[in-house]
Amino acid sequence: MEIKSNINLKPFNTFGIDCWCNYFVQIKTLEELSQLRQNAIFNSNEKLIIGGGSNILFTKNFKGLVIKNEIKGIKIISENDETVIVEAGAGEVWHEFVMWNISKGFSGLENLSLIPGCVGAAPMQNIGAYGVEIKDTFYSLKAIDINSGIEKIFYAKDCNFGYRESVFKSVYKNKYCIVAVSFQLSKQSAVLNTSYGAINDELNKMGIEIPNIKNISDAVISIRNSKLPNPKIIGNAGSFFKNPEVSPEKYNTLKQNFEKIVSYPLTNGNYKLAAGWLIEHCNLKGYSYKNAAVHDKQALVLINKGAASGNDIYELSEYILNKVFEKFKVKLEREVNII
Ligand code: FAD
Ligand code: EPU
Predict the structure, then answer these.
(1) Percentage of the chain with pLDDT > 70?
(2) For residue 61, is pLDDT > 90?
(3) Predicted confidence band at 126 (pLDDT cuts at 50, 70, 90)?
(4) What are the residue ranges of helices labelled H in the chain?
(5) Is residue 66 in contact with ligand 1, taking CB distance under 6 Å?
(6) What is the pTM of this model?
(7) Which mutation among 242, 262, 273, 300 tests ligand 2's pocket best, with the greatest number of atoms within 8 A of CB?
(8) What is the CATH number of domain 4-69?
(9) Quick one: which ligand is closest to 51's CA?
């Protein structure tokens, strides 16, 4: 373990923002984390834990210690005829972990194929896609209290998972380093989730009538590749905003004025609106601001045109928030973690 000084963070955030941190360390084992906790630099600096940097926007240099969690390892904790509990180190690449489970025939994560980032960040915002969220199969996680060094196990009931939310994004923000996450997956008679219309369309295109988990994963990968920019080519952090939830009264008013508004009814009676539709209908799809832009295939994604600063992207997001509010009186909320 080596603590490096003055490190450029451009390779460590998928927006590709050129910014610096005072100190940077890669942690590969629990022992290294515990060693790091004894170090004076750890104790006298603000800390930021990162995985793949795919949900972070740096708007300034980070004047502290960036800890890149690279703790690896996948193991089966327990199993019976029907289910298996699989644990992965926080530094495992999420998509590779999903592929590992598919190769073993363990189902439950296939709809979450190709989401960038690492396993440790997945519970932070209860990652979700194509009708599935990790809370559906989450079993537990191990985290180290950054201040005391004490290990704590969190079960689903302790995490307060919601739409792109958990205790780690709210009350416990920057308090714990997640070191391992486990999921309870199915070994037999997998219940496949094809509720998201686009998956069925894609399976039809692929000529598949009775899909297996690999087929679902392939369909999800194909849909994602068709509309989301590859961060290795175009800097981005996926959806920049959450899809907003509105009351039935608000929804009815919007529906009267904007007949084609895209929405989904929720079980609590409220409606979720497609933020991408709201942004597109402010004529902002493809809109450029300084070195940032709204992606021309998916208006919920903001991109770095090459030399954007974090502030270019942040200012663009502020502009979008104001335009959407002006037109629809709906307040968007950022999904990306702003540093
Ligand atoms: P980072 O960006 O490194 O960190 C995110 C947050 O978690 C930060 O606050 C960080 O401090 C904290 N954190 C990271 N690791 C730890 C740890 N070990 N312990 C404690 N805190 C930690 N998300 C979805 O939900 N669904 C999608 O479909 C989706 N699609 C995307 C598509 C693209 C092209 C991109 C670029 C992003 C997408 N995302 C999506 C967002 C992103 O991939 C997820 O939020 C992912 O979980 C972030 O993982 P990461 O390792 O990159 O986290
Ligand atoms: N839409 C538009 N214009 C756009 C984009 C979207 O009109 O430019 C409308 C379309 O009608 C479309 C609907 O919005 O049918 C929904 O779009 P899409 O299926 O692309 O999904 P999304 O709501 O934009 C959410 C998640 C994604 C996740 C996908 C698939 C959020 C904030 N985003 O996007 O997650 O991959 O659904 O499930 O919930 C992420 O969190 O970073 C992310 C990419």
Answers:
(1) 99
(2) yes
(3) very high
(4) 30-37, 40-43, 94-104, 156-159, 197-205, 213-227, 248-257, 275-280, 310-328
(5) no
(6) 0.97
(7) 300
(8) 3.30.43.10
(9) 1
